[in-house]
Amino acid sequence: MMSRLFTLVLTVGLALVSPVRAEVVTDQTLMVNKAATTVERLMRDANLQNDLRAKLVRARAVLVVPDLVKGGFILGAEYGTGVLLTRDAGGQWSGPAFYSVASGSVGLQIGVQDAESIFVIMSDSGLRAIMDNRFKAGADAGIAVAHVGAGAEAATTTNVGADIFAFNKAVGAYGGASLEGSGILPRHSWNAAYYGGNPTPQDIVIARQLDNPQARLLKERLLGK
Q1: Where are the beta strands (DSSP E) in 122-151?
Q2: What's the number of CA atoms in the CB half-sphere (13 Å) around residue 52?
């Protein structure tokens, strides 16, 4: 009798404890999942999908920013968190490294915009500009960026040699997202939380010393699966 009672108490106790031990969904996991959704959504957009698919199969890297919020009245600001992945010669994508994108501007602007953005990086120089945070210099970065989608300033056919193609699906009062004048900085605390230790973006996307199985869906979406 005592044995059965002990077994019953133990079973109930484990049932009560198990939810606490369930896997915690972190901010980093949510961001990677949102990035996968952004890729899927833009790959299905009739205005973007052909160009986007064609660029991704030749890309050197990609920076996916699921929520790039831009707004202001005279003084503007733009901010978002994204993930950077590189593509190797065999077409395989690295694990994601987390970055923040932020910029400020002055001009005659009013409104709010929320954009899903994919920056497809076609060259090593474009990748270095991202990783070295050179876009804070704007045009001085020496990198050609072609805009596609909402707020596009030129058709992709006129920007064949662009280092980066910016694909945007935006809702709001004004134009597409841009990297010019932006500070692009690694989120070291997020990379540490996602992978453990204290990895640099180079460890993740260049040396490929780290990966996380939670990024599998994002990689599949980038491969068009």
Answers
A1: 145-149
A2: 28
Rounded Cα distance, 134 and 185, in Å: 10
Residue 1 in domain: no
Angle between helices 27-44 and 188-195 (to 10 degrees): 100
Contacts of 49 (CB under 8 A, 6+ apart): 42, 43
And the tokens for 8? Answer: 């019953």
CA nearest neighbour of 204 among 221, 186, 179, 225: 186
CA distance 57 to 202: 22
Domain count, the chain: 1
pTM of the shown model: 0.80
Q: Measured between alpha carbons, how far is 32 from 38 in angstroms, rounded to an integer?
A: 10
Q: What is the pLDDT along the chain (225 residues), one digit of tens a residue?
A: 545 444 434 444 444 444 444 445 799 999 999 999 999 999 999 889 899 999 999 999 999 999 887 655 444 566 789 999 999 999 999 999 999 988 765 444 445 567 888 999 999 999 999 999 887 755 556 788 888 865 444 444 446 678 999 998 876 554 555 676 678 899 999 999 999 999 999 999 999 999 999 999 999 999 998
The residue segments making up the domain with residue 57 are 26-222
Within the chain, what is the greatest distance between any pair of CA atoms? Answer: 83
Q: Would you call 42 helix, strand, or coil by DSSP? A: helix
3-class DSSP state for residue 135?
A: helix
